[in-house]
Amino acid sequence: MERDFRYTYAATRIRCLEKELLPLSFFHRLIGASSLSEVRKILEETVYGIREGEEFDVLWERESRRTLSIVKDVLPNKRLKDFFSYSYDIFNLKVLLKNKLLAKRGMKKNWDILVDMGTVPVDKMISIVENEQYVYLPFHKKDSVYIIWDLLDRMEKAELDTKFVDLFLDKLYFNFMLNEAREMGESFLVEYIKLLIDLTNIMTFFRAKFAGRSKSFLSDVLISGGFVDEDRLVDVYQDNLDSFVKVLHYSPYSGLVEKMAALFEQGQDLASLEKLKDNYLIETLKNCKFVMFGIQPIVAFMVAKDMEIKNLRIVITGKQAGLSEGILKERLRYVYV
Amino acid sequence: MKLRVNPNRMELLRLRRRLAIARRGHKLLKDKQDALIKQFIALVKENKELREEVERELQSAYLNFIGARAVMSGRSLEEALLIPGIRSYLKVGKVNLMSVFVPRFDFMQEGDPANYGFWETSGELDAALYSFIKLLPKLIKLAEMEKAVILLADEIERTRRRVNALEYVLIPQLEETISFITMKLDEVERAALTRLMKIKEIVRKH
Asked: Which CATH number belongs to the domain containing residue B189 in this structure?
């Protein structure tokens, strides 16, 4: 097997940082804490050092920012560094376009949620959207401009719902990320993006079924480019779930969709389906632990960190809401370490 | 306590008329009170069932929302909910229920509550929003019903006060006064008779 020495430093540094990841026993300890002040004390032992009177949300954001900065620090080139920041650009773009639509309806703009972790600074992003200079967006220039103009035009004519801002931009994002990964020649990144597309599509399938949406809606919102052809999912949408399971029988997701279909038929519990999806992602990325040379440990670390923050949010939000220990343990996602 | 009136026949006739009206009014108000209480009990029972149902569903919707809040970052949640997908219309009217005007809410909603993309949002958010949307007409109905219950309770209270005032104050007062006037008139009649007899006796002696 050919060794990729470009990521030797990055992979080694990330391996060291993996020691910081919180094990499952830590989450159980957190769940067992008698009060939120005890939770704060326990968190102080970790990299999530919480300051006096600081909100938990600030903590999660600071850690996400730190993780991104570490990853950017260890990656060898700008294109790769940017690759992990585009999701923030697309988030800001969604917020700004939605604000544009809100302003047209005479409602107040809300720019407070913009996040300065993308490749385009927030001020510049605002100026791009406000002056409609979409060519300056980091995504494929022609595509993004065409998609955004078309989207806004169809919204104006009330042909589309405002939710299509998110849906179209998600498609634009995944399409762009897939191309970037291919152009950089990073086969693992291509596989990772395809995995994300498939998992999003599978979850979308169940969410559309839950809401009783039409087949044409599903066909509009599924993202192309994954390992599984999205048209196959559309074809079996109106059949029973067995057909859906059969369609994915020879895919890597056969076990996952079998469990998901069984759970969905039992009680349409989307929360459990989300958990299965997250666990599948972590389980798949656990294989990266055995890769010594390559970008895999870096991607796995980022996902592991996201999942860790998600688990912490589950525990703390649940504790604030007074949920029982049993429910909290049941909702926890797998941990990477 | 009797009324302060002149004990004469005219007053007696007037008070008897008043007593007859008061008794008829008392009967009518008593019937109204009974009907109101019957209506009230039925409404309270329905209201209790609806409230329990709403509270149960609200709890489950909030549980889903807490789940969504836990798995999504604050920013993602705000972004997802930036533009509301549902447009709601509420028409407020009044209905006459046993001569009590209770509010009538006609609630309509159109659109899709899940007005966001599927990537980076949680299925629990869909579940929470759909539960809230399903719950909203019930909440409006509950508000309508609870207001009707409050208004009916006020009306029952008012009617009971009137019934009691008639039953324990006005009617006894009128009866007492009538009896007083009757006695007084009888007394006057007896006095006149005695006087006449006395005069007759004096006349006979002479």
From this structure: 1.10.287.3240
* Closest CA–CA distance from residue B87 to any residue of chain A (Å): 12
Contact (CB<8Å) A102/B123: no
How many domains is chain B built from?
1
What ipTM is given for this predicted complex?
Answer: 0.89
What's the 3-state SS for B16-66? HHHHHHHHHHHHHHHHHHHHHHHHHHHHHHHHHHHHHHHHHHHHHHHHHHH
For B50-70, give one letter per residue: b (16+ CB within 10 A) or e: beeeeeebeeebebbbbbbbb
H or E element in which residue B97 lies: strand B86-97
pTM given for the model: 0.84
Chosen for mutation from B58, B73, B133 (greatest number of chain A CBs closer than 10 Å) is: B73
Question: Cβ contact (<8 Å) for A317 and B117?
Answer: no
Distance CA B72, CA B124 (A): 10
Inter-chain CB proximity A271 and B118 less than 8 Å: no
- On whether residue B1 sits in a domain, the answer given is no
Cβ-Cβ contacts under 8 Å between A and B: the total is 114
Could you tell me if residue B4 is inside a domain? no
H or E segment at B201? helix B171-205
Cβ contacts of B126 on chain A, cutoff 8 Å: 207, 210-211, 270
**Partner B, chain A 248-277, Cβ-Cβ below 8 Å:** 270-271, 273-274
What are the pLDDT tens digits along chain A (337 aa)? 566 777 888 888 888 888 889 999 999 999 999 888 888 888 888 888 777 778 888 889 899 999 999 988 888 888 888 999 999 999 999 999 888 888 887 888 788 889 999 999 999 999 988 888 888 888 866 677 777 777 777 777 776 777 888 888 898 899 889 999 999 888 999 999 999 999 999 999 999 999 999 999 999 899 999 999 999 999 999 988 899 999 998 889 999 999 999 999 988 788 899 999 999 999 999 888 888 778 899 999 999 999 999 999 999 999 988 889 998 999 999 988 8
Residue B23 belongs to domain spanning: 9-205
